Amino acid sequence: MKKLDQKEARSLFEEVLGKRISDASWYRLKPIFGDDFPLIKQNVTWLAEVKKQLPKCDLRLIPIVNSVKVANQLIAGKESEISGKELLELFKQHNIAIHPNTLTKWFKPLNGFRKTRVYELKELYPVILAAHTYKLRREINTVTQSIVKAS
Predict the structure, then answer these.
(1) What is the Cα–Cα distance from 146 to 126, expressed in whole angstroms?
(2) Dist CA 63 CA 136 (whole Å)
């Protein structure tokens, strides 16, 4: 695939995101694109979609990008529908422990969570993504607290 120049990449990113990003934000995003993640249309579009789903997320953190990839693989590897109970089992397999109140908050746009309800994976994408980043943030907080205590 053809590599994009910086101006093309930024305008594509902003188009997919649906709003303009500041020069400073774009400057911070540029280093993400390297040999293993080239500056091509598919990668820029994908990163903008992630930013749309997780607006407060710092995309420079490699684990967050990896967590998004895992969420995409989970969705691609399953059939088109999954029950609430199967979703909880999937989270358990990936060692994601979610407080029930947090789960309720994530499912508010889907009219609440029910173990017996069958959900389409497309509508669950934001929930799966949030679960993986939730786990990552908790791990980062645990590591940070242990470093502070050791100091």
Answers:
(1) 30
(2) 7
